[in-house]
Structure to design on (178 residues):
């Protein structure tokens, strides 16, 4: 079996650089240029398909297993749900850069581990709730809100190292795989 750890670290590095740049631009000017995501789109996403296709070809990933198939498909449903929620709701909007960041993260996490997206989304929800609480408690700065891209980035920076440090126990907890 091939060790994909160097590819995973490269993907993590590329996406991390893009998230840091996007977070900085969002805090500074609330505008994130589209070119910020080029490295992730043209390098990180294709790199993430190398281990995925190789694991599928070797039989490590059995797409006929319903749990594994669900683990590979549900990030796409989450992306579609976020898109529909953003497009159809006037109250809950998701910015373009936020949607791009979540899409890149979910797509590149698929080959790293079936429960990694669950861990990331859980941490993201917790941090989003915390950012709303912090924003409401700091009423003296009524015009300032914590940008969602900062929450997305923090969740990514916490989820990936946490997952790889405890991946076996997290797989058992989230998917029931032994």
């Amino acid at each position: 079996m091939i060790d994909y750890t160097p590819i995973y670290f490269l993907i993590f590095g590329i996406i991390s650089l893009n998230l840091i740049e996007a977070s900085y631009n969002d805090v500074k000017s609330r505008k994130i240029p589209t070119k910020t995501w080029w490295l992730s789109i043209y390098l990180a996403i294709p790199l993430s398909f190398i281990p995925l296709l190789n694991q599928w070809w070797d039989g490590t990933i059995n797409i006929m297993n319903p749990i594994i198939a669900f683990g590979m498909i549900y990030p796409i449903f989450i992306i579609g749900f976020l898109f529909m929620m953003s497009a159809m709701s006037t109250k809950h909007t998701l910015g373009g850069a936020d949607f791009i960041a979540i899409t890149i993260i979910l797509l590149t996490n698929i080959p790293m581990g079936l429960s990694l997206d669950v861990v990331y989304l859980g941490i993201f929800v917790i941090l989003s709730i915390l950012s709303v609480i912090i924003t409401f408690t700091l009423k003296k700065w009524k015009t300032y809100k914590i940008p969602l891209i900062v929450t997305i980035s923090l969740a990514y920076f916490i989820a990936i190292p946490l997952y790889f440090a405890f991946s076996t126990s997290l797989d058992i907890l989230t998917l029931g795989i032994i």
Remarks:
- Residues 128 and 151 are 6 Å apart (CA to CA).
